[in-house]
Design a protein that fits this description.
The structure is a homodimer of 191-residue chains. Chain A has 191 residues and is α/β, with parallel strands linked by helices. Chain A contains eight helices and five strands. The first copy, chain A, has a five-stranded parallel β-sheet, with helices on both faces. Chain A is globular. Chain A starts with 10 loop residues before the first strand and ends with a helix. At the A-B interface, helix 3 of A face helix 3 of B.
């Protein structure tokens, strides 16, 4: 399908979880699949957002929440215009995530990317846990700053128990189940 | 056309000009017409943006430019997904507007909403000029802060010389001319 044209319904796939839990790894596999199966895909990841929407914000609860609400605002605009939006953000506070959920409505799909803190700290992809544990980073989610897990996410992934490909497959299945993507069977029946 | 579905090309219609020049007045008439003729329309006006993207920013050149670039970032995401985006923002600095133009590319349509300062100050829709001239507002565009007019806008409207309806009609004609909207003739030929 030509870029900028589409007939599909939009949604926001919101990956929340600790640093190192696997949000980016899983979401990148999901993104590849979505680009084959949905006309419009946008990724709002931490770096893009920090540069373009939230430069100057710090890591207080207020600033973290402002960051989450800004991402939510942009995700809402895209979603209601038919875009498949992928958000990867620690988004540690339940209240802010729930405000985004309320704002976007049924098309908000929360994916809890879950792994024990020790596993995340051992992976330490960006070397941040080392700095957090030594005190070099003073407010680090999971170490010295809270993370509030979702009470009722649409999907929970245990990335210490399954491979990223398997996690991504479960996300895609959820999207099919919710009617945002056609199953292979539906696709062939329609064409 | 159902919400969230569309086949049209996106664009950003960027209204720039002094406070009181008529950006909102003209853009609201344009918005009504676009909602009839384009599947997806979003309005990013000053208030929406200050609340959702730029709370905490002030009126220094740096903060004003940050605000403009943030609006531009969101407008770009929407535009490349087929949305007709209407932006009303003083956006006083040429460099920042041109960065947005470069980022969005051909689908950026700059509309200079022009009226002499005295006319804007006399209209004083929000009572801001009075405060600016008395010094109560220290940095006010056109009074105590610069406004750099566009060198080559796609369209310039002299709102002191024509009625808002006439200005809006010229914007719509420009969109037809650029191929973003069908003319009535094309519409009836196609249906």
């Amino acid at each position: 399908m030509e870029s900028g044209t589409k007939l599909e319904r939009g949604f926001t796939l919101w990956f929340t979880g600790l640093s190192g839990a696997g949000k980016t790894t899983v979401s990148e596999i999901v993104e590849k699949e979505l680009r084959k199966r949905h006309g419009s895909v946008e990724v709002l990841d931490g770096d893009i957002v920090r540069t373009n929407l939230s430069k100057g914000l710090g890591f207080s609860r207020e600033d973290r929440d402002t960051n989450v609400l800004r991402i939510g605002f942009v995700a809402k605009l895209l979603t209601r215009n038919g875009v498949a939006v992928i958000v990867s953000a620690i988004s540690p506070y339940k209240e802010a995530r729930d405000m985004v959920r309320q704002d976007i409505g049924d098309d908000f799909i929360e994916v809890f990317v879950d792994a024990p803190l020790e596993v995340c700290a051992e992976r330490d992809v960006k070397g941040l846990y080392k700095k957090a544990l030594s005190g070099e980073i003073p407010t680090f989610t999971g170490v010295s700053d809270p993370y509030e897990p979702p009470a009722a996410p649409e999907l929970a992934l245990r990335t210490d128990e399954e491979e990223p490909e398997e996690s991504a497959r479960r996300v895609i299945s959820k999207l099919e189940e919710l009617g945002y993507l056609q199953t292979a069977e539906e696709y062939y029946r329609a064409s």
